[in-house]
Write the structure tokens for this entry.
Amino acid sequence: MLLINYARILHGLNRLDEAADYAERGCASAQKADAAFIVNQCLLERARIYDDQHNPTRAAAMLAEVAPRLRKDLPPGHYAFAALTSEYARVDLERGDLESALRQANEAVAMIEAAAKSGKAGGQFVPGVLDIRAKVELAAGRPDEAAADAARALHMFQEVAQPGEHSRILGIAYLILARALAAQGKGDEAREAARSAAEHLQASVGPDHPNTHSARQLAGLETQPR
């Protein structure tokens, strides 16, 4: 689990090759120990890493491996199935299959909201699933829906954030909202959201992270993409 948690940190810092290596090592150790929960966690994390490496085929292979394991180990309606479906949406988005990505993203939101409303665990993951759907909606040319999802996700993240602390999660949420607002033609609001994104991201993942550069560019603080 320590290897997988370290992989998550490296992933957040965009050190994707290192993240993949630690996640793969963690998976191998967990499989030897027959630690089913940890195996499931590392397969999902590897899918996320491979997707961000623009390798949807390998990401999909991880999802195909973990899906039957989750169905075997968890009851119907568990929030993990929403996370799994969100990852399928990300894979479809990376492949350019926007119709399937949107369908999967909608299903994931419905699943996580149903779990939260029924009193089951998982309510804390609603904003993350909304942000994934916002990305899909933006790619599908639905900026109004993307902005609504992004704004709702940001509000939910803010409700549990520590006042005055910078956060990668908040930074990404602001960045998604900024992109949606820009697509709506709301330049001033987009720049304001992007400035907030840049502030959070620069303090949490550093000035050289691609998301930090994207936020600074949207905010008008950088003139050239990196």
Remarks:
- The domain at 1-69 is CATH 1.25.40 (Serine Threonine Protein Phosphatase 5, Tetratricopeptide repeat).
- The radius of gyration is 17 Å.
